[in-house]
């Protein structure tokens, strides 16, 4: 039976949001969106507010990523929306189902120069799946339902609605559209069969699984396919932890050996972008498994590229009944390389050097992070080490900016993660450069009693730029920060706590204090500025 809803624009929007499982709002206060606050306040719908709009969108994205359902950010008109565009763009690259609702200057005065009057849609349309101005209160439930349906339909992504002042403040009534589950996209069975045969018959196959495996609830299907076909699995993004580190087919440190030796590389649920050599794996054949046809790579020609619901595709791989090659020797070869790399990493993570090497920070973190801790990477050089040394034990526990590489996600992601998991450890790994983007939002965490641990790798430089620039030109510019800056004092001034660590031996006790503090706590680690994460000279 159709439900009839009535009220002002905020109440009509809230009814549709709740029907889709949205349970909280992230925002920075603005008069254009007061009715949305009013509806939330009077209906016990939690509101979390921030000090910069980008953090509101990043918080909504963290909820969308972790919970695999829509996250909501509400931004006031004009600069409120433009301040959120980096967050929208990150969500677009990360396929995160985020809804941004914006205020908008009144339509009846459009062109007269109202406060913060601008047309947002041309700015947000390129980085959203759906962008619409809703001119009537009566039309709000329909528009919210359409937007959220688009956000949740693979390939998932952010959507945007804005409401002229008179529309959101007006009273209206409308039927609440029913919430229809998104139907799974059926893949072409011939493409799936060709892919399965290619993997099963390969001598040295490798699987690389990415964020869409988690977003599409295909983790169990991935494990079943790997175990059935006996294929080694590497992961990136939120795919990390899809196979626990102790699984005999889970690999993390032998990727270079694997990709150099593979004859078939199977990339599942992640694009063939710069993180994966743009899909160029030498003579290896490429199987690119995507959740929607539009995600097929256009710059390379895979041997086969099944598109559709990843659970269906991976389950079909697991059930493949044709001829199979024996991959045992290949798996054993990679395990030997993996074990050797672990020995090297263990030595680096135990290094007693002062200044502290970044690897030692992660060695100490591995001792204190729980298996279900949510770890957030917000930085360049320092966070690269996290990708190398931390191995998530469970899927859905790793958040990073993704391929867009936007700094400043840290405090917003931390807020969304803490709201999602009030009883877990939340640890933000932040470079000192990244700290300049969002650290003020520690105040938002303190004020709303959302404790997190922040570990800053403080080397006093923009590490990803300083070292390559010196290598290229013999000098560097615009790459230095204040050495040994007391970011912990900033957090203390905002109501949290923290300390600076200069000696490797002091790291463990400092981290223990941080996780026991019960308030936002920043461990400011003075790291060696000469220690640069090794990279290719290709800056693309």
Automatic annotation (TrEMBL):
Keywords for this protein: Thiamine pyrophosphate
GO annotations of cellular component type: acetolactate synthase complex
Domain Thiamine pyrophosphate enzyme TPP-binding per the UniProt entry, residue ranges: 378-525
Database matches in InterPro entries: DHS-like_NAD/FAD-binding_dom, THDP-binding, Thiamin_PyroP_enz_cen_dom, Thiamin_PyroP_enz_TPP-bd_dom, TPP_enz, TPP_enzyme_TPP-bd
Residues of the Thiamine pyrophosphate enzyme central domain: 192-316
Domain of life per record: Bacteria
Residue stretches making up the Thiamine pyrophosphate enzyme N-terminal TPP-binding domain: 9-121
One Gene Ontology MF term: magnesium ion binding
Gene Ontology BP terms: isoleucine biosynthetic process; L-valine biosynthetic process
Listed Pfam families: TPP_enzyme_C, TPP_enzyme_M, TPP_enzyme_N
Cofactor(s) it depends on: thiamine diphosphate
Family per record: Belongs to the TPP enzyme family.
Designated name of the protein: Acetolactate synthase-1/2/3 large subunit
Lineage: Bacteria, Bacillati, Actinomycetota, Actinomycetes, Micromonosporales
């Amino acid at each position: 039976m159709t439900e009839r809803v009535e009220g002002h624009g905020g109440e009509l929007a809230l009814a549709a949001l709740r029907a889709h499982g949205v349970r909280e709002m992230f925002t920075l206060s603005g008069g254009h969106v007061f009715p949305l606050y009013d509806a939330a306040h009077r209906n016990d719908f939690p509101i979390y507010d921030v000090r910069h709009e980008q953090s509101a969108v990043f918080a909504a994205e963290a909820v969308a990523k972790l919970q695999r359902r829509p996250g909501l950010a509400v931004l006031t008109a004009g600069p409120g929306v433009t301040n959120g565009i980096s967050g929208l763009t990150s969500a677009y690259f990360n396929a995160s189902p985020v809804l941004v609702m914006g205020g908008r200057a009144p339509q009846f005065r459009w062109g007269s120069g109202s406060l913060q009057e601008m047309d947002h849609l041309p700015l947000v349309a390129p980085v959203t799946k759906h962008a619409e101005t809703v001119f009537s209160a009566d039309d709000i439930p329909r528009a919210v339902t359409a937007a959220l349906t688009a956000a949740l339909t693979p390939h998932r992504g952010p959507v945007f609605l804005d409401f002229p002042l008179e529309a959101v403040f007006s009273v209206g009534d409308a039927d609440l559209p029913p919430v229809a589950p998104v139907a799974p996209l059926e893949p072409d069975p011939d493409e799936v069969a060709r892919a399965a045969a290619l993997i099963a018959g390969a001598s040295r196959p490798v699987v690389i699984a990415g964020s869409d495996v988690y977003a599409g609830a295909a983790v169990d299907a991935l494990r079943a396919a790997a175990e059935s076909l006996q294929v080694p699995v590497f992961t990136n993004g939120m795919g990390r932890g899809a196979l626990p580190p102790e699984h005999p087919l889970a690999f993390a440190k032998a990727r270079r050996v694997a990709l150099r030796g593979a004859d078939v590389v199977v990339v599942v649920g992640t694009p063939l972008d710069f993180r994966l050599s743009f899909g160029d794996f030498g003579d290896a054949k490429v199987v690119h498994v995507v959740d929607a046809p539009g995600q097929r790579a256009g710059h390379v020609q895979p041997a086969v590229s099944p598109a559709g619901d990843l659970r269906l595709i991976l389950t079909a791989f697991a059930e493949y009944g044709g001829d199979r090659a024996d991959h045992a020797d290949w798996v054993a070869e990679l395990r030997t390389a993996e074990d050797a790399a672990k020995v090297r990493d263990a030595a680096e993570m135990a290094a007693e050097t002062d200044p502290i090497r970044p690897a030692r920070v992660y060695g100490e973190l591995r001792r204190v992070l729980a298996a279900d801790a949510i770890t957030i990477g917000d930085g360049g050089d320092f966070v690269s080490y996290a990708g190398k040394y931390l191995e998530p034990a469970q899927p859905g526990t790793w958040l990073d900016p993704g391929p867009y590489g936007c700094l400043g996600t840290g405090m917003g992601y931390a807020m969304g993660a803490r709201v999602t998991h009030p009883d877990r450890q939340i640890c933000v790994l932040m470079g000192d450069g990244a700290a300049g983007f969002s650290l003020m939002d520690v105040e938002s965490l303190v004020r709303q009693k959302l404790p997190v641990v922040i570990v800053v790798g403080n080397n006093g430089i923009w590490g990803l730029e300083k070292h390559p620039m010196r290598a290229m030109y013999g000098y560097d510019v615009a790459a230095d920060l204040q050495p040994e800056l007391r970011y912990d004092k900033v957090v203390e001034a905002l109501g949290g706590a923290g300390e600076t660590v200069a000696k490797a031996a002091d790291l463990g006790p400092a981290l223990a204090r941080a996780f026991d503090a019960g308030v936002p706590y920043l461990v400011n680690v003075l790291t060696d500025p000469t220690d640069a994460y090794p990279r290719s000279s290709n800056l693309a």
